[in-house]
C-alpha cells in the first residue's frame, strides 16, 4: 500500500488538474469534474467522470503510447472540411442561378443582406447561450439546418423561394460560427488557440476549394439542382460526424442561466477589436456577390466562375496557413494595413481592366490576401475574452461583422443597380484604403502586437 501511495502525484493549475497515478498520466478539467476539485473519501460535489484527456498511457517496459488528446480538434477540422465542401459548392452557383431565375442585381444583393441580417442577430444570442447551455447542441442543429437549406435550394424555382431558403441557411450560420470558435478554444490548451483556429480555417479552405470547383462543374454538366443535392449529402455527413465523434469542450461557464444582458457583457478591448474587424467585411460582399456577377458579365461560365472561386480560396488558404508566421515577422499592424491597402488597389485594377482572365487573377489576389486578417482577429478576441465569456465575445465579433456586411451589401446593391458595378467597386476601394489608414493609427501601441505573440 505504501508503494502504491508513493506513485501518486497531482498538480493543479486553474481548472486543470494533472495526476500521475500508478504509471498513468491523467488530466482532469475541474469545470467538468467538480468531484476532483476536492477528492476526499465520502466527499462528492458531482458525478465522478473519466479524465477528459488521457495524455499518455505507459505499458509494460515503460513504452509510451500517445492518447486521444488531439482527437476532438482533428474531428472538428474534418467537419470544417465537409462544411466548406458543401456550402462553397452552392455559393458558387447561387447568385448566378438566382439571377437566371429572373432576379435583378439588387435582389441578389438583397438576398445576401437578408442572410447577414438573420445570421448577425442570431450570432449575438447563440455565442452567449452556448456559454451556459454547452456547444454541441447549437452546432448539431446548425449543421442539420445547413443540410436542410440545400434541399430547399434544390426545390426552389423562383427568386422568392431562393430568398426563403437563404433565410434557413442564415439561421444555421448564426447558430454555428460563434459557437464553433468557442468550442475550438475550449478544446485548445494554453497557447494553442491561434494555431488550432488556423488549422480549422485551413480545413474549411481546402473544402471550399474543392467545393467551388465541383459546384461549378456539376452545374454545367448536369444542373444547379444537382449541385444543391450534392451539398445536402455532404452537410448531412458533417452533421452525423459531429454528433458521433466530437464531445463538449468542458470550458467553464458563466455560472448561471442565459440572460439578455450577457450578450453585451464583454470587455471594451473585445468591442474595439470587433468593430475594426467588422469594418473590413466589405471584402465578403465583393467575393460573394460582386465577383460572380462581374465575371458573368464578362462572359464567364459556371465552371469558370467556380474555378476562379477555387483559385481565390486556394490563395486564401495559403495565407491562412502562413498568417501566424507572417504576423510574427511583420506585426499584426503592418500585416493588416498592407492587406487592406492591397485589396483597395486590387479593386482599382478590376475597374480599369476588361479582360476576363485578368479580372479572375485580380479577384484571386483580392480574396487570397484576406486570409491574413481572419486568424488574427479571431485569436485576438479569444485571447482578450474573460473566462467563461468566450462564446459571448465570439458572438460580438461575428455579430458586428455580419451587421456591417449587411450595410455593405445594401450599399453595394444600390450602387450596382442605380449607378454601375464599376461604381460599386470604386466605393469598395475607397472604404478599404481608408480603413487601412485607420487600422494603422489605431493599432500603433505595441501592446496589441504583444497580445498576438502571446496567443501563438
Please give the number of β-strands: 5
Q: Which percent band covers the strand fraction?
A: 5-15%
According to CATH, the homologous superfamily of the largest domain is MFS general substrate transporter like domains
Q: What low-confidence regions span 5 or more consecutive residues with pLDDT below 50?
A: 40-69
Describe the protein.
- The chain is mainly alpha-helical and 456 residues long.
- The protein folds into two domains: 2-66, no CATH class; 71-455, MFS general substrate transporter like domains (Growth Hormone, Chain: A, Up-down Bundle).
- Helix content is 72%, strand content 6%.
- It contains 16 helices and five strands.
- It has helices at 2-6, 71-100, 105-133, 136-155, 159-186, 193-221, 224-245, 268-279, 282-297, 302-330, 332-351, 356-369, 371-384, 390-418, 421-442, 447-455, and strands at residues 9-13, 16-21, 24-29, 53-58, 64-66.
- The chain has a five-stranded antiparallel β-sheet, with no helix packed on it.
- The chain is globular.
- It starts with a helix and ends with a helix.
- The model is unreliable at 40-69 (pLDDT under 50).
Amino acid at each position: 500500500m505504501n508503494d502504491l501511495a508513493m506513485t501518486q502525484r497531482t498538480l493543479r493549475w486553474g481548472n486543470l488538474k494533472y495526476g500521475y497515478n500508478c504509471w498513468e498520466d491523467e488530466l482532469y478539467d475541474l469545470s467538468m469534474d467538480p468531484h476532483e476539485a476536492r477528492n476526499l473519501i465520502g466527499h462528492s460535489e458531482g458525478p465522478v467522470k473519466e479524465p477528459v484527456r488521457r495524455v499518455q498511457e505507459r505499458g509494460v517496459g515503460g513504452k509510451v503510447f500517445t492518447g486521444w488528446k488531439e482527437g476532438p480538434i482533428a474531428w472538428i477540422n474534418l467537419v470544417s472540411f465537409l462544411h466548406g465542401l458543401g456550402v462553397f459548392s452552392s455559393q458558387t452557383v447561387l447568385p448566378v442561378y438566382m439571377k437566371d431565375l429572373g432576379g435583378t442585381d439588387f435582389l441578389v444583393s438583397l438576398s445576401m443582406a437578408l442572410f447577414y441580417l438573420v445570421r448577425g442577430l442570431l450570432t449575438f444570442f447563440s455565442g452567449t447561450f452556448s456559454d451556459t447551455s454547452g456547444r454541441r447542441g447549437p452546432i448539431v442543429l446548425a449543421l442539420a439546418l445547413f443540410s436542410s437549406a440545400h434541399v430547399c435550394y434544390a426545390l426552389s424555382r423562383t427568386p422568392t423561394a431562393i430568398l426563403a431558403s437563404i433565410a434557413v441557411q442564415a439561421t444555421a450560420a448564426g447558430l454555428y460560427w460563434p459557437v464553433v470558435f468557442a468550442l475550438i478554444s475550449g478544446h485548445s490548451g494554453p497557447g494553442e488557440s491561434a494555431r488550432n483556429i488556423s488549422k480549422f480555417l485551413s480545413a474549411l479552405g481546402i473544402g471550399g476549394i474543392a467545393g467551388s470547383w465541383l459546384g461549378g462543374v456539376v452545374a454545367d454538366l448536369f444542373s444547379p439542382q444537382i449541385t444543391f443535392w450534392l451539398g445536402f449529402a455532404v452537410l448531412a455527413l458533417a452533421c452525423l460526424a459531429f454528433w458521433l465523434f466530437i464531445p463538449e469542450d468542458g470550458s467553464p461557464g458563466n455560472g448561471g442561466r442565459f440572460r439578455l444582458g450577457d450578450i453585451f457583457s464583454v470587455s471594451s478591448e473585445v468591442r474595439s477589436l470587433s468593430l475594426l474587424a467588422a469594418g473590413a467585411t466589405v471584402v465578403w460582399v465583393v467575393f460573394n456577390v460582386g465577383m460572380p456577377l462581374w465575371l458573368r458579365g464578362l462572359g464567364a461560365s459556371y465552371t469558370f466562375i467556380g474555378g476562379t472561386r477555387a483559385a481565390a480560396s486556394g490563395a486564401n488558404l495559403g495565407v491562412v496557413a502562413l498568417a501566424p508566421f507572417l504576423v510574427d515577422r511583420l506585426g499584426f499592424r503592418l500585416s493588416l494595413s498592407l492587406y487592406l491597402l492591397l485589396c483597395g488597389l486590387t479593386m482599382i485594377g478590376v475597374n480599369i481592366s476588361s479582360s476576363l482572365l485578368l479580372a479572375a487573377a485580380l479577384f484571386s489576389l483580392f480574396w487570397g490576401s484576406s486570409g491574413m486578417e481572419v486568424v488574427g482577429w479571431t485569436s485576438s478576441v479569444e485571447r482578450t475574452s474573460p473566462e467563461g465569456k468566450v462564446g459571448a465575445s465570439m458572438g460580438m465579433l461575428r455579430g458586428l461583422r455580419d451587421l456591417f456586411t449587411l450595410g455593405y451589401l445594401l450599399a453595394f446593391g444600390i450602387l450596382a443597380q442605380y449607378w454601375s458595378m464599376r461604381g460599386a467597386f470604386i466605393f469598395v476601394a475607397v472604404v478599404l484604403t481608408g480603413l487601412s489608414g485607420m487600422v494603422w493609427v489605431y493599432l500603433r501601441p505595441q501592446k496589441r502586437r504583444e497580445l498576438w505573440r502571446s496567443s501563438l
